[in-house]
Amino acid sequence: MKKMLIGGGLLAVAALVALAFIVPSKMNTQTTDLPADITWLSWDEAIQMAEKNPKKIFVDLYTDWCGWCKKMDATTFKNPEVVRYMNENFYAVKFNAEQQEAVQYKDHTFKYIASGRRGVHELAYSLLDGRLGYPSYVYLDEQQNRITISPGYKDAAALLKELGYIVGNHYQQKTYEEYLRSAGF
């Protein structure tokens, strides 16, 4: 009797293990049209693409040591709605605010400036008007003029509201707070 119970238990465990491998693989064969990740571009790639096909640019200014930046990458920027909306409406740029490679833009070379333990890239400093806090996001219009700076961690719902404000050009008529009230948020 003991042997039958142990044998039956082992058989049940084996069946569950087999199902664990079979079910996910079947689920993975179903494709969706949604990309899994935001299509992150370099600064140069986004500028070149925007010159050929104008579109707003979303710049994620981050640092390697920033915990909230890593949380954005792991959560908000992985949200399927955020991924879809960002890829459809923006050229998305990830820009390390402490990168040491120079960036050529509009007849100016932006460089890394060492200062203390850490330095800052001149392009990040310029985009943020010297208010260095991470993460921070900068929105640029189709002509690469800055629309606004948005500091701090945002969950998916908050970021989607902000993206809608920018994509709908609501910033041209009302403040973000007015937009949220008029949209019923």
List the SSEs and their pairings.
Elements: H1 2-29, E1 40-41, H2 43-52, E2 56-62, H3 67-74, H4 80-89, E3 90-96, E4 103-105, E5 108-110, E6 112-113, E7 120-121, H5 122-127, E8 136-140, E9 146-151, H6 156-167, H7 176-182
Parallel strand pairs: 1-3, 2-3
Antiparallel strand pairs: 2-8, 4-5, 6-7, 8-9
Helix pairs in contact: 4-6
Structure characterization notes:
With 185 residues, this protein is α/β, with parallel strands linked by helices. Helices cover 44% and strands 20% of the residues. It has 7 helices and 9 strands. The chain has a 5-stranded mixed sheet. A two-stranded antiparallel ribbon has the order 4-5. Strands 6-7 form a two-stranded antiparallel ribbon. Helix 4 packs parallel to helix 6. The N and C termini lie far apart (64 Å).
Q: Quick gist of this model?
A:
This protein is of the alpha/beta class and 185 residues long. 44% of the residues lie in helices and 20% in strands.
| Largest sheet entry | 5 strands, mixed
Total helices: the number is 7
What radius of gyration results from the CA coordinates?
23 Å
Alpha-carbon distance between the two ends:
64 Å
* Outline type: globular
- DSSP strand tally: 9
Spatial strand arrangement across the major sheet:
1-3-2-8-9
**Class from secondary-structure proportions:** alpha/beta
Unreliable stretches (pLDDT < 50, length at least 5) are 4-31
